[in-house]
Amino acid sequence: MVKLQKINKISSDHVQTLIHSIDTVLFDIDGVLAINGVIIPGSDNAVAKFRQLGKKIGFVTNNALYTEDKVLKQLELFKATEDEIINPNLSLLQYLKKIDFKGDIYAVAGRACKNHLRNAGYNIIEYKDIQSSDLEESTEAIKDLIQKSLERCKNVKVIYLDTDLNICQGALEVAKTLLYHMDGVQLLTGMCDDLCPIGNNLKMICAKYHINAIEKWTCRTALRVGKPSNVLAHFVHSKYNISDNSRVLMVGDNVETDIAFGALAGYKTCLVLSGIWTEEMVNNWTVAEELKPDFVVNKLGDIYSIIKDM
Predict the structure, then answer these.
(1) Per-residue pLDDT averaged across 3-25, rounded?
(2) Cβ(164)–Cβ(109) under 8 Å?
(3) For 150-192, how does the pLDDT look when each residue is reduced to its tens digit (9 = 90+)?
């Protein structure tokens, strides 16, 4: 298939043939449907049209900061159901269940993620359980933190890294220490995005920078449970009973997470330019060729304008 086809440059018949060739449409949320809770014009109409055409719908986000209830409220106009929400918290739980995980989890992540794990019955250790006050600015304080980490985290078998808006160096020192000095500890990550659009042309720094740092410092490669990862793909396949990956369309605004996820899973892919990626970035392609999406569109509503009469 020819890559980087701009939907507004191809015939409506071609677009309609594409729509007939898919059974399931997976949408990223931030930058595709909404930015900081503000609906991108036309995106709700596009999702409604896909529903009307009988497509299965999924909302696949790497953002684990929000509870499912908050995501549902954000997607109220899209008539989203809880069963249609897919995030790293859910794929992480499926993975832990699959491996029959026993042990503690040291989590550098948001409150919603940690509560999700606790509600599933897992014992979560976070940085404040080890160090309840600010560290003194000395190497002796770091040595003391390392010793307390090894004593407090003897039963830790998984280190989980995700977005933590209150992250500090001490939290990363603990993760590094456990990976250095304890055998059999798995390193898992959820959101590995670099940036996230938050409105008014602003972008938030995401978890990629500290995930990359831990991998570099420990010479370990984290197993990812968010986009892009096989773990999340397996979760989606089982949830939607997908037998033919080519009949799935992944729509996202980030090539290195959304489109990479679709490419890895064998889905058709569509990049929208309403979030992280811009037309200039597409025209001056600098990432791997295999990550080129099948289709490019300025915003999701542009697809609706083509298929609204189907």
Answers:
(1) 90
(2) yes
(3) 999 999 999 999 999 999 999 999 999 999 999 999 999 998 8
Which two tokens mark 26?
């997976």
HSE at residue 246, side-chain half, CA atoms within 13 A, is 3
Helix (H, G, I), strand (E, B) or coil at 222: coil
Is the pLDDT assigned to residue 1 strictly greater than 70?
no
Q: Which of 162, 169, 164 is nearest to 87 (CA)?
A: 162
> What gap in Å lies between CA 11 and CA 17, rounded to an integer?
10
pTM of the model as a whole: 0.89
Phi-psi region of 88 (alpha: psi -120 to 50; beta: other; left: phi over 0): alpha
Distance CA 54, CA 205 (A): 37
Reported residue count of the chain is 310
- Residues 238-263: tens digit of each pLDDT: 999 999 999 999 999 999 999 999 99
Q: How far apart are CA 116 and CA 61, in angstroms?
A: 16
CA angle (198 as vertex; 192, 203 as ends), nearest 5 = 60
